[in-house]
Amino acid sequence: MTTNVLSLKNLKIYDITQELFTCCVFPGDPVPRKKQILSIEKGDMCNLTELSLCAHNGTHMDAPSHFYQDGKTIDETALEKVIGEAAVIAFDGELKDGDVERVINEDTPKRILFKGRTVITPEGAKALNRHGILLVGVESQTVGPEDAPKDVHLELLGKEVVLLEGIRLSQVPEGTYFLNAAPLKLGGCDGAPCRAVLIHDNGSCQGTFSASAPGGENNG
């Protein structure tokens, strides 16, 4: 999937969002669908589309209520967590405690987007919480192992870390950006799709943050 890049004077904008109706879907989740219920071509006044989807389709966010019965819902997510400075870090493999300590330091932004085939382990999730991370993003449809995602979700959502899943970073160099990833305001829901973008000034993205799991390769 190609990431759209728009130049706006001195700004470079990276669209890191999947197109919803061709997106990857987590096994067992409903597939997003659209149905045209009014059509100008058929004589109607306007075009009107009905949507059917899961709150976790495509590029989306998890709210604490996804794994906690009394957790906050997506409309209660603080926008300050999903808008602000973020680091794109290339990492392939299982992200463990030592890996977190290697790729994160006191100067690293509190919003981390992992580029590559990153699988966060429970111990890696605990390490991210020790660093006070506000948001974690991955290219997978789940932050943890696909066959056992519960423990990682419980650890991160228990600290109300925002989970941004299903992003696309293949065209984004490693570095520091301004992230805007506000979710749809779906009252009472456990997650929501979002349109996530990264913005960089002057198109100068320096590879300040870079790491790979032992035996893994960074995506260039």
The oligomeric state of the chains shown is single chain
Residue share in helices? 10-25%
Q: Architecture, according to CATH?
A: 3-Layer(bba) Sandwich
* Strand line-up across the major sheet: 1-2-14-12-6-8-10-11-5-13
CATH class: Alpha Beta
- Mean pLDDT across all amino acids: 89
For the secondary structure, the number of strands is 14
Inertia-based shape = globular
Question: What Rg is obtained from the alpha carbons, in whole angstroms?
Answer: 18 Å
Strand content: 25-35%
Count up the helices.
Answer: 4
If you consult CATH, what is the topology? Glucose Oxidase, domain 1
Provide the number of structural domains.
1
Structural class call reads alpha/beta
Major sheet details = 10 strands, mixed
Topology:
Layout: E1 5-8, E2 11-15, E3 33-38, E4 48-52, E5 60-62, H1 79-82, E6 83-90, E7 93-95, H2 97-103, E8 111-115, E9 118-120, H3 122-130, E10 135-138, H4 150-158, E11 162-165, E12 175-180, E13 191-193, E14 197-201
Parallel strand pairs: 6-8, 7-9, 8-10, 10-11
Antiparallel strand pairs: 1-2, 2-14, 3-4, 5-11, 5-13, 6-12, 12-14
Helix pairs in contact: 2-3, 3-4
